[in-house]
């Protein structure tokens, strides 16, 4: 097995249990700003507050948190700790369409490799965020455990990142719209009680809204049909169901996914604080591997339109 480590950032939503299970020794912390302007380093283990308190504080749009790219010094500290130990690094970062973290990591890597010329650092722009990044990191770890080299694992991630899908309802897109996480919000923006918009990733690394549904039952029915039309080899997969303070809905959706697709494993997790500040309360989504995302999402949009038409007929 090639002697390298996989280092994600705080947007990956990987809990301590998952980091230990999949051999992730460390990660890049992010920065979060509270409404009073105070700045904190934000990690993956809810050190600042528990998830229920965090998302409840955002309910009704009462509280807005802001995030920023990881600090250069923090990235240097994490990377150099591994380089000193004789490890090469595969860094997997938050989508460059959403953050400057990838760019900062590249600059840090260039600087450190002058100091450690015998070492290697490869940085992969995930073009994903939140639990989709978790899934990519896990797949990188599995590839590494199979004996793949640093270069082979990096190339593997580049080849599969547009196979990683998300789909699931949002209660309110206010936070995503405000922070630029969706690419076509103008056609869908508006807060209507009981209306649940749903999005998947496009090839630019943004979420693209595909449709909206009235009520959770219709939304969950659409999720299952969308997965059916995009997933590949579900029985071989670890599938995530992630939520932002919607535990009961996540349990219900996970049960439906299990009944319909019988994946190898379903992991239910909270959206972490780093991404949660931009997502807000109310997300319940499935993350999985499927067919390659089409250019301009022609296939995905046509599939969702068909699902909507079928529900209306």
The helix content is 25-40%
Number of helices: 11
DSSP strand (E) fraction?
A: 15-25%
Total beta strands: 12
Please compute the radius of gyration using only Cα atoms.
19 Å
Classified by CATH, the class of the largest domain is Alpha Beta
CATH architecture of the largest domain: 3-Layer(aba) Sandwich
Major beta sheet summary: 4 strands, mixed
Order of strands, widest sheet? 7-12-10-11
How would the global form be characterised? globular
Question: What is the domain tally?
Answer: 2
The whole-number mean of residue pLDDT values reads 92
CATH fold name of the largest domain: Rossmann fold
Element pattern in H and E: EHEEHEHEHEHHEHEEHEHEHEH
Q: Could you list the spans in which at least 5 consecutive residues all have pLDDT below 50? A: none
- Quaternary state, please? single chain
SS class: alpha/beta
End-to-end C-alpha gap: 55 Å
